[in-house]
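RECORD TYPE: inverse folding
INPUT: structure tokens
STRUCTURE:
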């Protein structure tokens, strides 16, 4: 996972060095922080008036006890993505559409049912949203996205017991982001 993330970020930085744009945006998605404390960040580079290239990462190592400590719930993940975003008006202002490639290692369970699933997801996605300029350097981004691809997974009967119920590879489609992001534009 670390080699993939490093390769994606390195490729993005190389592409940005070749471009003549001078704008950079750094931010974090408040929606991810509210979802079990998922630490996240994104960086976007303007490569023209209408296009940005970006990279993002999410990390959540937390498990939470419930029912007096008898069981636990988690939405743990390590995720990296690169994306291209098209802005009809101008970069970092107004409406946008994006396409992304994402890799995610995950372990989730105990939230709705006692079973837990862990594995690796990889695929692509699309999204749309709006970026509201609060000040010349501070933006509020709102958007939604969906992604799909393939996943290798193992399902266990509970987060702690280790009794395997299912294992395999299959396709998936799911929401990728609910974005309510604060971003600083350099």
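DESIGNED SEQUENCE:
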């Amino acid at each position: 996972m670390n080699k993939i993330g490093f390769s994606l970020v390195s490729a993005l930085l190389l592409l940005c060095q070749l471009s003549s744009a001078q704008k950079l945006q750094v931010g974090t998605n408040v929606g991810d922080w509210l979802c079990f404390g998922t630490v996240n960040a994104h960086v976007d580079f303007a490569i023209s008036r209408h296009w940005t290239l970006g990279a993002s990462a999410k990390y959540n190592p937390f498990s939470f006890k419930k029912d007096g400590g008898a069981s636990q719930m988690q939405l743990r993940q390590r995720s990296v993505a690169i994306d291209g975003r098209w802005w009809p008006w101008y970069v970092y202002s107004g409406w946008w559409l994006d396409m992304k490639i994402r890799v995610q290692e995950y372990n989730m369970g105990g939230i709705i049912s006692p079973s837990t699933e862990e594995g690796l997801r990889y695929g692509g996605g699309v999204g749309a949203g709006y970026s509201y300029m609060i000040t010349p350097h501070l933006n509020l981004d709102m958007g939604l996205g969906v992604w799909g691809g393939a996943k290798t997974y193992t399902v266990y009967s509970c987060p702690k017991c280790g009794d395997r119920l299912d294992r395999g590879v299959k396709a998936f489609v799911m929401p990728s982001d609910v974005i309510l992001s604060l971003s600083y534009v350099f």
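NOTES: The mean pLDDT is 88.
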